[in-house]
Amino acid sequence: LFAPEPGAEMVELGITYLGILAPFYLLPGFNNTLQGSFRALRRMRVTLAATILQMGTRVLLISLLVPRIGISGAAWATITGWILMSTLEGAYFAHVWNKTDLEVYAK
User: Fold this and answer.
1) Taking Cα atoms as reference points, which of 102, 92, 99 lies closest to residue 44?
2) Exposure string for 61-77, b = 16+ CB within 10 A, e = fewer
3) Could you tell me what percent of the chain has a pLDDT over 90?
4) CA dist 43 to 58, 85, 103, Å?
5) Strand ranges (DSSP E) for the chain?
6) Contact in structure between 62 and 77 (CB atoms under 8 Å)
């Protein structure tokens, strides 16, 4: 799409990138589920913080890794961002679950 001459090399890069990412695609689903829970609980700041952390980490790591290891660096940067986001949101959700009477929010 954005390559001047798409061909076998572009396909190979896509295979490499998706081959690294594929086992980790459950993380965005986990994150989306938690973010939906936070929306229902009216606690959107944690989703904003986690998204900023995830995006900042990805930008930083892509700028560091891609020049050194190529497209694999972009995949690993994405995975690292997803892991950080899952960790932050999962920990906060556990905290909210343990400390809050969730029935108040259900009404």
Assistant:
1) 92
2) bbeebbeeeebbbbbbb
3) 64
4) 24, 15, 15
5) none
6) yes
